[in-house]
Automatic annotation (TrEMBL):
Belongs to the elongation factor P family. NCBIfam families: efp, PRK00529.1. This is Elongation factor P. It comes from Rhodovulum sulfidophilum. One of its GO terms (biological process) is peptide biosynthetic process.
């Protein structure tokens, strides 16, 4: 299926020169003069080699047909990260380079979107927001205004995040998994 380059997003799978690549990052550039372009960081599925490609935003790119469905995360071991299809109970193992930075967020039982090609996991999409607990942060400094200053905090899953001054150790917060940013204090 042909799509224009500017519509590519993280997790899409494209075919180039008979090889399949998973998109890691796609950025559109619109210079004042000249042709708008799309720069795409990709990883070749067969051997994991990373490459960067630049297309004109209106150029046609071959998008591969992949299977995307929900899976439940089970556990990780030396073989990789194991997921189960909640409908058929089929299990698949994803390699650590496929999971990447998402590994910190994975907890047993978590529902994720997994893209597979010919039965092999090639890309993972986490829930947009997760609840974590703050395990370490700096004390509040008098005179700081809540609207403008954030302080660093460490969470129970090992992810650093900037939080408002009123957040203390032991507070459960909601963070955005796409960019590790604080969203709000957890309601639970």
């Amino acid at each position: 299926m042909k799509v224009i380059a500017s519509s590519l997003r993280k997790g899409n799978v494209v075919e180039k020169d008979g090889q399949l690549y998973v998109v890691l990052k796609a950025e559109n550039f619109h210079p004042g003069k000249g042709t708008p372009t799309t720069s795409v960081d990709m990883r070749r599925i067969s051997d994991g080699v990373k490459t960067t490609e630049r297309w004109k935003t209106t150029e046609q790119v071959e998008k591969a047909n992949v299977d995307e469905r929900e899976y439940d995360f089970l556990y990780d071991d030396a073989e990789g990260f194991h997921f189960m299809n909640p409908e058929s109970f089929d299990q698949v193992a994803a390699q650590p380079d496929v999971v990447g930075d998402a590994a910190a967020y994975l907890e047993p039982g978590m529902r994720v979107f997994l893209q597979t090609f010919e039965g092999n996991p090639i890309s993972i999409e986490l829930p947009q927001k997760v609840v974590v607990e703050v395990t370490e942060t700096e004390p509040v400094v008098k005179g700081q205004t809540a609207s403008s200053s954030y302080k660093p905090a460490m969470t129970n899953i090992g992810v650093r995040v900037m939080v408002p001054p009123h957040i203390d150790v032991g507070t459960r917060i909601v963070i955005n998994t796409a960019d590790n940013t604080y969203v709000e204090r957890s309601k639970d």
